[in-house]
């Protein structure tokens, strides 16, 4: 190849790189401006507090579908509905979520029912860290305890799980073979189950601590989210399926078994709460069961929801359509 051709080729490559860098910078600036505007809009909202000082406990069960969806998707009735109804909870049949992805669903919850699309998981993680709801609760005199693999409200993660690229190094490596190799080296055993058991044990400790301030305890369990590590009786599942390869029958069986295990865990956690009937209790999912549904099926965003607080207004609670609206109606 002649020097002239090499020069021309080199010049063309440089121009392409320059244009690509310019487009990347412009896109980054536009994203920053959009997120800054959306963040200011979220933080301008305020929640009604009704002058109450109840302790709040929220147990979130990841990928727990609504009773209506469980019936239509799996022909399954969850006993949790009956148990909570008998205890005086208000249980929703088809509560919706703003998103069928965990980080966006929870981000919307902790940021005043934020409905604006978040640019990526990095921004959503940052919004969770700087939660406007938690800031308002703290101003109102609350202490916040988070048992989560996300940094919610500035509280350190309970465990590190590589679920979303929410830190810079993960974003850089996302899509490469490196995270897969690191997971093989670092994540021995059953990381999701280990996280769940750690959260359950930590919850028992935190719920019995004596505190000077009213407290909001948030616990996020990866149940019945796959992998379906346990059967209905809580025993380790020796044949955990790959939902991308398993039959419908296998998925239904292991999902509903894991969900039933989650019911047992949840009710046990509820009974461990001292004087729970004097507190505000929320038990919910974050989105529906997605594994057998097309992307446009609305049931992907139908999730479980149940609320209890002393003297609760059932008519008011019945007006809630989205899980992310719950904080606006707590008394």
TrEMBL record:
Keywords: Membrane, Transmembrane, Transmembrane helix. The chain crosses the membrane at residues 12-32. The keyword ATP-binding does not apply. The keyword Glycoprotein does not apply. SUPFAM superfamilies: Alkaline phosphatase-like. It holds the Pfam family Sulfatase. Residues 55-291 form the Sulfatase N-terminal domain. This is Sulfatase N-terminal domain-containing protein. It comes from Pedobacter cryoconitis.
């Amino acid at each position: 190849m002649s020097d002239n051709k090499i020069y021309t080729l080199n010049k063309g490559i440089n121009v392409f790189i320059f244009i690509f860098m310019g487009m990347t910078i412009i896109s980054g600036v536009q994203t920053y401006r959009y997120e800054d505007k959306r963040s200011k809009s979220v933080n301008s909202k305020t929640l009604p507090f009704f002058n109450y000082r109840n302790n709040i406990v929220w147990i979130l069960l990841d990928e727990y579908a609504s009773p209506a969806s469980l019936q239509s998707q799996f022909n399954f009735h969850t006993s949790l509905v009956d148990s909570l109804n008998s205890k005086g909870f208000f249980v929703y049949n088809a509560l919706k979520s703003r998103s069928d992805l965990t980080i966006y669903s929870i981000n919307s919850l902790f940021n005043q029912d934020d409905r604006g699309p978040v640019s990526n998981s990095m921004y959503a993680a940052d919004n969770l860290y700087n939660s406007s709801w938690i800031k308002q609760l703290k101003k109102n005199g609350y202490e916040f305890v988070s048992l989560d693999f996300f940094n919610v409200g500035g509280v350190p993660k309970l465990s590190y799980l590589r679920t979303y690229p929410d830190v810079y190094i993960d974003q850089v490596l996302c899509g490469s073979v490196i995270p897969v190799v690191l997971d093989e080296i670092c994540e021995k055993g059953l990381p999701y189950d280990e996280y769940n058991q750690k959260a359950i044990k930590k919850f028992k400790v935190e719920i019995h601590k004596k505190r000077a301030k009213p407290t909001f305890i948030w616990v996020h369990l990866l149940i019945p989210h796959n992998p379906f590590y346990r059967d209905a009786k809580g025993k380790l599942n020796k044949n955990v399926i790959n939902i991308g390869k398993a039959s419908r029958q296998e998925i239904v069986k292991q999902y509903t078994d894991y969900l039933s295990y989650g019911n047992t865990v949840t009710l046990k956690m509820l009974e461990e709460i001292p004087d729970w009937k004097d507190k505000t209790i929320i038990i919910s999912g974050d989105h529906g069961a997605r594994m057998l549904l097309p992307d446009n099926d609305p049931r992907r965003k139908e999730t479980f929801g149940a609320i209890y607080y002393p003297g609760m207004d059932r008519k008011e609670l019945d007006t809630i359509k989205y899980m992310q609206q719950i904080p606006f109606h707590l008394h």
